[in-house]
Automatic annotation (TrEMBL):
Name of protein: Replisome organizer
Biased segments, Basic and acidic residues type: 248-279
Chain residue ranges for the region called Disordered: 245-279
Organism encoding this protein: Ligilactobacillus ubinensis
Length: 292
């Protein structure tokens, strides 16, 4: 198997590819790097090596970047021939070639040719690969292998189940602000994948509607559905405190009586200073002494 692989910019720069989660994009590159000359790779092994999850592979399959050939997650990269052009005299047949042609008869497979420099056939699999190929003969393929529909049906069922759950949540969102359903559904799928529950989102919508009612939020200030889901607003802190009452467009302020010292016309009473007090005391003492 070659030590270098290439990727078509037309594929990896497409909107369909870039809209996938980054984990699915990364898995696609790892699968391409480890695929054999027919574009077939044992995805389970690669996922274990790079820490990917099965949902990442299912997304690639749903987007038709790969085809899962059996329950062991042997996977065919659909755009392999565009990504890599392998010389026929250097090509090594995949040990899963028969399986691929059984499930995808129209798959583009390069037939190996003798080497131009030596005239000897090349691409001959190693002994252990021959053994594996015999083990995966027609009889075994007929018993153990499943069709693409059988393998990918659980993924379609899961997407359908998610969409049903999302529709129930979407129906709860404030009427008149249900814009951007597609973007909202993508954000919902990402949130569910990251561990958010339907109950958390449902509670968030209920609390948001309660806040709108209490705060009397105008409809044009209510977040669009796509924005609310994309920003995961179910995690926000909601304000259930009623707003301040207003009269004639102005806030009602309770007036309090000011103390006398705070009034503008307040005049301080004149108080005798310390010297006057001392003189007064001296006069009183003198009068007492005279009487004695």
């Amino acid at each position: 198997m070659a030590q270098r692989r290439m990727f078509s910019n037309r594929i990896t720069n497409s909107a369909k590819f870039l809209k996938m989660p980054l984990s699915s994009q990364a898995l696609y590159f790892h699968l391409g790097l480890h695929a054999d000359d027919d574009g077939i790779v044992e995805a389970f092994t690669i996922m274990r090596q790079v820490g990917a999850v099965e949902d990442d592979l299912r997304i690639l399959a749903a987007k038709e970047f790969v085809v899962i050939l059996n329950t062991d997650l042997v996977t065919f990269i659909t755009d392999w021939s565009e990504n890599n052009r392998i010389r026929a005299d250097r090509k090594v047949d995949s040990i899963y070639k028969n399986m691929l042609l059984k499930i995808l008869p129209e798959a583009e497979i390069i037939k190996p040719k003798p080497r131009a420099d030596t005239g000897k056939p090349t691409g001959r699999p190693l002994d252990n690969q021959w053994t594996a190929q015999v083990r995966l003969g027609k009889d075994r393929l007929g018993k153990d292998s499943k069709t693409i529909d059988q393998v990918q049906k659980p993924n379609r069922d899961r997407v359908s189940h998610l969409e049903n759950d999302f529709d129930k949540l979407w129906s709860l969102y404030p009427t008149g602000r249900k814009q951007g359903r597609k973007k909202a559904f993508a954000a919902y799928q990402r949130a569910i994948k990251n561990g958010t529950t339907n109950k958390q989102i449902q509670d968030g919508i209920v609390n948001y509607k309660k806040e709108i009612k209490i705060q009397k939020t105008p409809i044009n200030y209510i977040k669009q559905g796509s924005t609310w889901f994309f920003n995961e607003c179910w995690s926000d802190e909601f304000n259930f405190t009623p707003p301040t009452q207003k009269r004639n467009g102005r806030e009602v302020v309770q007036k309090e009586t000011l103390p006398d010292w705070a009034k503008e016309d307040h005049v301080e009473e004149e108080k005798p200073n310390d010297e006057d007090k001392s003189n007064r005391i001296a006069e009183l003492m003198e009068q007492i002494n005279k009487k004695e």
